[in-house]
Design brief:
This is RPP40 protein. One of its GO terms (molecular function) is ribonuclease MRP activity. One of its GO terms (cellular component) is multimeric ribonuclease P complex. The protein is α+β, with helices and mostly antiparallel strands and 110 residues long. It has a domain of 68 residues. It has 1 helix and 3 strands, in the order H-E-E-E. A 3-stranded antiparallel β-sheet has the order 1-2-3, with helices on one face. The N and C termini lie far apart (48 Å).
């Protein structure tokens, strides 16, 4: 039919939710060694010291799409996206979620 539609999405924010006045995004690019990532995570957790500053925070680390290795010493497969990332979501009580992603041609992370 090729008819147009104004439909975009049925997405709605899950409950419970909180509207915040400000959010902060910092992007660092380049080759960053694991010890620096751990140091950055520790520094980010200091934001929980100020009661009204943060309820949660997240740190996402992307590998280069054309990197020769993926996880540990595994060869990195690359066809389209070259996914190679992990993401920490850390909460005020220091509980965290860890999400790891790889492309279709890579082994699962350790």
């Amino acid at each position: 039919d090729n008819k147009s539609s104004s439909f975009l999405s049925t997405y709605c924010c899950p409950q419970p939710n909180t509207v915040v006045e400000k959010a902060f995004l910092c992007t660092i690019t380049g080759f960053i060694i694991p010890e620096k990532i751990i140091q950055l995570l520790e520094q980010l957790c200091c934001y929980f010291g100020e009661p009204k500053l943060a309820y949660w925070l997240t740190l996402t680390v992307h590998g280069f799409a054309d990197s020769p290795v993926s996880w540990r010493e595994s060869e990195h497969g690359f066809h389209k996206g070259g996914e190679n990332l992990y993401n920490f979501v850390i909460f005020r009580n220091l509980d965290y979620w860890l999400q790891m992603a790889v492309g279709t041609n890579d082994d699962c992370p350790p």
